[in-house]
Each structure stands twice: as C-alpha cells, then as structure tokens.
Amino acid sequence: MKSFHSQTAIFPVGYHANRFYWSMRHSNRRCKYMCSIEEQDGRPLFKVKVVEKGHEDVVLTGSSPKAVWAQILEPVAQLRDSSGTLKLFPVYLKGEDLFGLTTSAVTRIIESLPGVEACERYTFRYGRNPLMEWPLAFNPTGSARSEPKVSQAKRPLIWRLLLCSKSWASVAGAHQGRHSKSAQYRRMKAEWKSNVYLARSRIQGLGLYAARDIEKCTMVIEYIGTIIRSEVANRKERLYEAQNRGVYMFRIDNDYVIDATITGGPARYINHSCAPNCITEVVTVEKENKIIISSCRRIQRGEELCYDYKFDLEDDQHKIPCHCGAVNCRKWMN
C-alpha cells in the first residue's frame, strides 16, 4: 500500500478514466486519453492510451501520473506555442488531476474502499465512516433492486409507492405550515449535492450517506429517472434482466413508474432498512408528481440513508433476505 498512494491521491489498481484534452498533433483539436492504473512488480503502473481519429492509438506509460502526462503536456505545449495559440503551462498541471483522482465524487468512493486505512501518508479529504470499514454482507440472492429473482416470472417486482403514515403526515403538515412543499422542493433541488455522497454500504453494494447533519422532516433528495407507463415498465424489466442489468424502478401510482436504471440519480442507491431514517412521499410541483426522500428523524453526518421498501409479502419460496442489521430487523424484505 505504501507505493499505491501519495499525500494527495490514492491509486487503486483497475482504475479507468477517459479524458478529453488537446491533441499532440493538431493545435486546434482535442482527442481522447484513456487513463488506467495497473500493477507491475508490486508498484503502480500508470497508462494513458491516446485515441485520435485518423491516427494509430499510442500507449504511454509512467511510474507516476505526472510522469506519464508529462509525455503529453510537453508536446502539446510546444505545438500550441509554435502555432501561436494560447500557451499551455504544463508545470502547473498535476497528473493526479488529469487522471481524475482528485475529483470530488471519485475521491469519496476511493476513500471508502477497503484497506484505505493503510495509506499512512495520504490526507483524507472527507474522512472515513466507520460503517464503510465493515465487510460486505453475504447476500446469496443479491439486492432486491438489482438481482434477478424467481418471483419476477410470477409478478414483476417493481418498487411500490410508499405511503406516509399518519404520524408522519401530521409532523409534515406542521412543517408545511412554515414552508410550502414547493418551496421545500426548490431548496432541496438547489442543495441536494451538499446533502449526500455515494460510498460503500455496510448493507449492500453502494449506499448514500449524509454529508451533513440533516434535521427531521427535511427533503433530502429526489428519486429521478424516466417516467414510463406500467406496461412499458414490465417490458423494460424483462429486458434489463435478460441483459443482466440491475433494475431500479419506483412506482408513482397505478399508471406510471419512474425508471432510474439508465437515467437515474444517486437516490436509487439508497438501501432498505427495517429501522429507516427516511421516508418517501409524492409531492406535486407545477402539476407534476415527484418522489421525494425525506428524513423522518434527525440524521447525523456520515450516517447511511435508508428507508423501508415495503415490498408485498411473498411465500417462503420467494422470500428476499434482509441484511439491514437493525435491532427490529424482520429478516425478510417481503
């Protein structure tokens, strides 16, 4: 691990990123640079594959991000200087930045990977959540949202609409007296990126975490995607299963479903829990129904967001195990 990190970045083996940058052959064109990290003799090997239309692909390697990108930046700077275009100063460009390793979303995920506690020289930007250091739960049937199930042949397992309880409705009603739902929605749309971040979950796969303390009855994030009819949702679900693709769908009402499988946002990664800290509600904004995930209690910074999927009850043959780990866990999601 000592060789696979610096003070400002961690270098995970298998990392891939595509960048578009100025061409080394034409001063007024851009081309594609495919960055990757491999292991060679116990040390990281940084590769950049130059893909440009009309030219053969070129693979450059280096012992550090700066070393490999220097082979690109210097020719680009010389070409732009000779052509009279805007000068490029490669000395001020960092290899870690060009590899995308310092991008906020990438850094959050890398800092949640197992084993990162061995990176002694690295300065963590977001800190490590103790939950992220737990090993992944063994789930023989997979997530209810992403793995094929036998029950789907009998009835499509699409996320159903979660209705607000009476206690929540009364609390939300009092909260709405101070701020209308439309005002809360507009504020949430402007601030949701500062509310949450994506990281490894102790429940299943990736999960969504609170990036700050969130008060009770606060709109956290919207479940977005493509709005389709129920009939289309059934066909698409079968198509996704045939492609071995994870299925992320949420029912708005009896007629329409939000399909977040291809065009969804990070809200689709929120896991199920029998002791949830969030609840979903349908909010009408400008005559459109929106599915909003709101906090049903105060949520502390670094706490994983979760809500009760409320799947329909199934027989023993089609039961889906629950691994939320809550004290009151029902052991099954359905």
From TrEMBL:
This is [histone H3]-lysine(4) N-methyltransferase. SUPFAM superfamilies: SET domain. Keywords: Chromatin regulator, Metal-binding, Methyltransferase, Nucleus, Phosphoprotein, Repeat, S-adenosyl-L-methionine, Transcription, Transcription regulation, Transferase, Zinc, Zinc-finger. It comes from Cyprinodon variegatus (Sheepshead minnow). GO terms for biological process: methylation; nervous system development. Gene3D superfamilies: 3.30.160.360, SET domain. Signal peptide: none annotated. It is an enzyme of class 2 (transferase). It holds the Pfam family SET. The keyword Metal-binding applies.
